[in-house]
């Protein structure tokens, strides 16, 4: 099964208790599908489904409908950004 | 120039970098600082600023590229600090040089607006022994609308 590296940041990293996770997935799949898979696979993964959780594919902001292909290096999930 | 760093920055050095001999007519600069948000008399505000190495720099480059596409600019400099920051510390610097002031003001404002909502930084604030992740401000997202006109 193909693998994808998933990283978490800020409050999401703390609630899930992981900064990185290698997921085995059936590609291609959407960000939304990956999120739901992780929500059932990971302890406290349900926090991924909270409103406002954002994502990126290889450093580009992504949406739930965006597709993760097997060429993807890294997917990230994180809460809304609060810099500046 | 885009820098994400733990170290403090010197505004004067950044200003000198922005000034291009015989060309510059205006430099607009913005500096963001850590506000005092602790309420107790003996408490101090501090932040832990987390970022996503690689993505954060990429996000800032996209914003600067967008500013350069919208206005005729001579140079842009963005410095954002990460790690532990205390009240009155400098957090962020955005500087823009241009031939005329309108472009410099607008681009500086634009870059800060987008940095707030489109760059991978997260603040965790600490008051005394209590810490909490700062929630995103809906006003910040709303303020992007004026640039889409």
Explain what you see.
- The complex is a heterodimer of chains A (84) and B (149).
- With 84 residues, chain A is an alpha+beta fold.
- Chain A has one domain (15-75).
- Chain A contains two helices and seven strands, in the order E-H-E-E-H-E-E-E-E.
- In chain A, the strands form two sheets. In chain A, strands 2-1-7-4-5 form a five-stranded mixed sheet. In chain A, strands 3-6 form a two-stranded antiparallel sheet.
- The longest helix of chain A is centred in the middle third of the chain and has 11 residues, at 31-41.
- The model of chain A has no long low-confidence stretch (mean pLDDT 95).
- Chain B is of the alpha+beta class and 149 residues long.
- Chain B has one domain (2-135): Alpha-Beta Complex (Aldehyde Oxidoreductase, domain 3), CATH 3.90.1170.40.
- Chain B has helices spanning 11-18, 55-70, 101-118, 138-142, and strands spanning 2-5, 26-33, 45-51, 75-81, 83-86, 90-98, 121-127, 130-133.
- In chain B, the strands form two sheets. Chain B has a four-stranded mixed sheet, sandwiched between helices.
- In chain B, helix 2 (55-70) packs antiparallel against helix 3 (101-118).
- Chain B is globular.
- The A-B interface holds A 7, 9-11, 52, 56, 59-61, 76, 78-84 and B 32, 49-52, 54-55, 58-59, 80, 91-92, 112, 115-124, 133-137.
Describe the structure concisely:
Chain A has 84 residues and is of the alpha+beta class.
Topology:
The complex is a heterodimer of chains A (84) and B (149).
Chain A: E1 3-8, H1 10-16, E2 20-24, E3 29-30, H2 31-41, E4 54-57, E5 60-62, E6 67-68, E7 74-78
Parallel strand pairs in A: 1-7
Antiparallel strand pairs in A: 1-2, 3-6, 4-5, 4-7
Chain B: E1 2-5, H1 11-18, E2 26-33, E3 45-51, H2 55-70, E4 75-81, E5 83-86, E6 90-98, H3 101-118, E7 121-127, E8 130-133, H4 138-142
Parallel strand pairs in B: 1-4
Antiparallel strand pairs in B: 2-6, 3-5, 3-7, 4-6, 7-8
């Amino acid at each position: 099964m193909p693998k994808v590296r998933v990283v978490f940041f800020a409050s999401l990293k703390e609630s899930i208790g992981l900064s990185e996770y290698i997921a085995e997935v059936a590609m291609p799949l959407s960000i939304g599908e990956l999120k739901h898979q992780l929500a059932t696979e990971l302890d406290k993964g349900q926090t991924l489904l909270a409103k406002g959780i954002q994502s990126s594919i290889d450093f580009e902001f992504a949406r739930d409908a965006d597709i993760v292909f097997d060429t993807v290096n890294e997917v990230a999930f994180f809460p809304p950004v609060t810099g500046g | 120039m885009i820098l994400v760093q733990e170290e403090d920055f010197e505004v004067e050095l950044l200003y000198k970098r922005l000034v291009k001999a015989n060309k510059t007519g205006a430099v607009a600069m913005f500096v963001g600082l850590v506000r005092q948000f602790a309420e107790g008399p003996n408490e101090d505000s501090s932040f832990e600023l987390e970022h996503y190495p690689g993505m954060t720099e990429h996000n800032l480059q996209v914003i600067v590229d967008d500013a350069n596409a919208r206005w005729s600019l001579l140079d842009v400099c963005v410095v954002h600090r990460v790690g532990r920051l205390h009240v009155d510390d400098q957090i962020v610097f955005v500087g823009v040089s241009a031939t005329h002031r309108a472009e410099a003001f607008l681009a500086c404002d634009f870059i800060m607006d987008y940095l707030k909502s489109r760059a991978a930084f997260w603040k965790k604030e600490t008051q005394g022994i209590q810490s909490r992740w700062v929630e995103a401000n809906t006003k910040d997202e709303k303020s992007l609308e004026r640039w889409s006109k």
